[in-house]
Structure formats: C-alpha cells, structure tokens
Request: fold
Amino acid sequence: MRVADPDTARPAQVRLRVAGRAPFVLEAISPGTWGNSIVVEAIWGRDRVTQLTVRTPDARVQSIDLDEMETTRPAGSDVRSNLLGVADWALPEFAAEEIVQFAADNPWIPTQELSPQVRSTPLCGGADGLDRLTVDHFTAHPEREGVWGVDRLDRVDGVSFVAVPDLMAGQDLSAGVGAFAGFTRDQLRDAQLATVNSCMRRRDRMAILDMPPLGHDEIRRYATGWPQTSFAAFYHPWLIVNDPLRLRSNVRRIPPSGHVAGVYARTDRQRGVHKPPANAVLEGVFDVRQPIDDVAHGELNDSAVNAIRPIPGRGVLVLGARTLDPDIRWRYVNVRRLFAMIEEALDEQMQWLTFEPNNPRLWRDIDRALRGFLERLYRLGMLDGETSEKAYFVRCDETTNPPWDTDEGRVRCDVGIQPPFPAEFVVVRIGVTRSGIEIQEKGAQDA
Reply:
C-alpha cells in the first residue's frame, strides 16, 4: 500500500488539444512522479486523430478511443477464454490495468496540441507527496477523517503478514540525506507499535519489524519494552543489495523486512505455515550491513531479535524464528502462524452452524468436521505427535455444552493441537575415548 501525504501528492497530468475536439485532460491513475514518465501518442486515421496510445517505460500500454472517449483494449486481443463467450477485455477481472484516466478540464494545466508534427507528449506535474510525510501517514492521523496506512489493512481479509520497510527511510546516514530526512527513534517506535497493535487486534497476521541501523548494544536497548506478543518479530541487520538505479553506488543498504516477507511467502508455498521461515536464503542479497558473530547472535536471541547472517558457501540466511513473546509456547513464528491459520480456517468453515438446531446431533457433526480438518493437517506434517491422538483432540459434547449455554444459543467446542516446535539449536558433542574420538549428536536444545 502506498504511503504519501495526500495534500502534496499529485498525479501527473496533461491537457490535450486535438483538432475537431474540445480540450480534455488525462491524468495518471495514481499520484506520484512515476506518472511523469507516461507518454501519450496520437494514432491518426484518414484525416484526424482517432485513438491515443498510452505507454510507460515498463512496456505497459493502454488505448483510448477518442470517438467513444473511453479506454479500450489494443487491437488484436479479442481473446475469449471465458464461458460467457465475450472478449476477455470486456470483463473487469480480465481487463488490463489502466494507466491514465479522464479528469475534469482545467485551463491552468499545461496544454499540448497533437498534430502531424507533434505526435506524442509526456505527462507532467506528478509529485510523490513525501516532503511533508509524517509517521501518522503510516498509521492513523488523529485529526483527519478516513483510514490511513496500516489501519487500512484492517479492512483487508487474507493478509498473513505485514511489513513496513519504508518507515526506515532516511535512517541510514551512510547513504546520504535524500528528500526525506527520516523519523526519530520515538516516532519509529510509535509507528511500529501501531503496526503490532493492528496485528494483535486482528489475530490473523504477523508484523515483520525492522531494526534501525544501530550497533548491537543499541539494538538490544531498542528491543526492550515492547509488548510481549507472538504477533510480531524483529529482524536485524540491514541488507546490502543491488541498486538498479545506481543512485550513489552499485549497491544499496535496505531494511530486511521486505526480503524476510519473501521468505515467509516462499516457505508457505513450498512447505506450509508450520515450517519456521528460517535457515532460508535471502535471494538477491550480497551481504549484511553489520556482521554478527556467534556471541552477538546469542545475545540477539535473548533479546528476541532474529539474526541474519552470511554463511560461507550457503549465502545470506535468516537464522531466527522468534516472536516477541517469551512464553515457550508462543516463542516461535511458525507456531503463532499455524494457530492463526487454523483459527481462520475454522472460523470460515464453521459458518454453516448458525441457526442449526443446538442438539447432540449438531455436536457430532461439529466433532466430525473438526477431526477431518485436523487429520488432514496431521497427515501433511503440520501437527506433531506419534499418532493423531497425540497430535490433536476435539471435544464437543454435553460436557462442553451445558444447558445454560445451549439455552443462550451458544455452541462450545474444545480443540487442542500439538504444534511442531522447531529444532532451534542442535548440539553435537565430541569426546575422546580409549578407542578414539567419539561424536555424539544430541537433539534440539532450546536456548
């Protein structure tokens, strides 16, 4: 979701004058300097301009039919892949993303006349709205109406994790000072707390939090005083990646949350939410801003900060999966996300219960449905236990539904699951015996 100051963010625009038509204004579909790179090209018919082709540097194209003054699909794309038998471009779900839209005419906007001599013109005047950016734009503005930043995600279902890497803009002083000077430490904390509170309120998503580019001792101090919640996790240090814009050098230092979010998504797709998003390579990362040795790694673990380290021969890896909750039951990211997934799935699958007769038959139906769902998770390896009886239990009977609850129209069901706790540390012991060196590998040892 884009964050900007709406009072200073402006879409790029151009006022066009075409022979035989009243002047009209085209503007970029959203504010920002990106719109200044949009080019509008005239397509001539026999004696006049009949269409406009809108192009962006990344090869997106939009056609505008001036005879009907509406956007159309480019010629040659009359594809019918749907059951309705109409062109795909005519359906909203298949339509190409718009680049520009018509706006109210304004004579103060720079006007360009399209002619055989001037066949194309760029849009201009787009502004990103970053000059007056405040932390409230990332969270919620106390004096404005409407929904802002992270709060807007409260209305979006299906969000699994939230990262706000641009909160750290301007924090890396070694990169030079840009248009935005950055927030203070207190402002950063307030914005990150708002993100964490949003995730705690929804209970179906996690906050992936960045640490400022500080030294290890300062990082440990910054990590104190946060809510002891399993709905958030810190990552450190910053990453060194390729800078395609070559603004100051060939590489750029960036906060890790964006790459870590990619690890979450990749792990979900390849293994599932029960697999900790750790011991995983960060793609496209050359190095880290600050090296971490074993001692510093242990100290970061104690502070509930997940370390990112380059390992020779393996790349740059995420080597932590801890939440901000010190409780061993909720210490790990995969445990919290597994429970969140199950809670969300059960909430959606149990909607059919509403207004069903509240009797033992309903209780048996609920028990059967829940056991079937949990058994599938167990067979996929998402629950721990030698047998399914040890991996989960379901209880929905007269003991969980006493008469005073059923009289109130409530149905209660107890569900317990055994999550797969990660092997965070594997200890290998080496000793010398009379017969030689003996290596004994122990099981996972929790720090």
In short: Residues 135-334 form one domain. The chain has nine helices and 22 strands. The radius of gyration is 28 Å.
